[in-house]
Specification:
This protein has 306 residues and is α+β, with helices and mostly antiparallel strands. Helix content is 26%, strand content 33%.
Length: 306
């Protein structure tokens, strides 16, 4: 077995299939709710269902991954990815860069937050990890900063926690600039999506739309294990992926990590937990390679190999 080289899936299937199993990364504007944006995308794309990952408040802009069709099954894996934000905060007094950096350092690492009353989750204190907070620009009492944090961290609460150190603190603007490996450069406006859909429908030019639609396995950004055709149907019916059914694999797979299981054509079969690392797979002749967590491919597309 060797490192996986998976064919690009965004050109390997027809447009209807791609629309029913992809993510689109929307640059959400301020104003509408995340639910409204997902609903607009669903109607524009003409798919049966769509859902968003990681809710942004109406007044917050930025990266909003939206799953189309069957890709909604995988939203929980996207929601769990870490996030980056740029925030404009107004303090209750003029501050220096040294003061700001000193306070920010107190909130890097593991912190405890209670979700705000406006949130839909339980209002219980919970631990979250902040990887870094760095000032970008400081003008008197206006502080522009970037924060990289674990999913489920509330920046509004973080700003409120800064208040005692700055004579008060208020969040003025907030923008999400990344979700996992997805950056704001990967996001598209609703108008760009609408134009691409129009070109595909009216002019039969799919090129712009295919650049916008991201196949589910690519959007998840997980290491891949390629499954032999003969093993796919068994996995689709709930069996674990055994070592003999592995064709190729990414060399960065770690035991216990999430992996994307794909066909030799590059189709996403499902998501699972690696039971062996890439190093262990190299010499393995039997046993379970991946324990399935979520199967994406429908049954019956491949013949039984057992």
């Amino acid at each position: 077995m060797a490192s996986a080289v998976v064919p690009p899936t965004r050109y390997a299937c027809n447009l209807a299939q791609l629309l029913d199993s992809s993510f689109v990364i929307i640059d959400k504007p301020c104003g509408p709710s995340s639910h409204e944006v997902a609903s607009w995308v669903r109607k524009m794309a003409g798919v049966s269902k769509a859902g968003h990952s990681g809710t942004l408040d109406p007044q917050v802009s930025g990266v909003l991954p939206i799953a189309l069709g069957k890709a909604t099954k995988l939203l929980s894996y996207m929601t769990a990815k870490d996030k980056k934000y740029v925030c404009l905060m107004r303090t209750g007094m003029p501050v220096t860069e040294q003061q700001v950096r000193s306070v920010f350092s107190l909130f890097v690492g593991q912190i405890v937050q209670t979700p705000p009353k406006e949130s839909a989750v339980a209002k219980k204190a919970r631990k979250r990890k902040v990887y870094y907070i760095k000032p970008l620009q400081i003008r008197s009492s206006d502080v522009l900063f970037e924060v990289h944090c674990q999913a489920g961290t509330y920046i509004r609460v973080l700003v409120a926690d800064f208040a005692p150190y700055f004579g008060g603190a208020k969040m003025i603007e907030l923008r999400r600039i990344s979700v996992g490996s997805i950056r704001e450069e990967d996001a598209h406006t609703l108008q760009e999506l609408s134009d691409a859909l129009w070109l595909a429908k009216e002019k039969h030019d799919e090129s712009a739309l295919r650049k916008i639609l991201i196949p589910a396995d690519e959007a998840l950004g997980l290491p891949k294990i390629v499954i032999k055709d003969a093993a796919i149907e068994a996995v689709c019916r709930g069996a674990p992926l055994f070592v003999p059914g592995v064709a190729m694999y990414d060399k960065n797979i770690l035991s216990g990590s999430l992996v994307a299981m794909v066909s030799q054509k590059g189709e996403l079969v499902g998501v699972g937990v690696a039971q062996l690392s890439a190093t262990e797979l190299k010499d393995a002749t039997g046993g379970v390679a991946v324990a399935s967590k979520r199967i994406f491919m429908q049954k019956g597309l491949y013949q039984k190999g057992w």
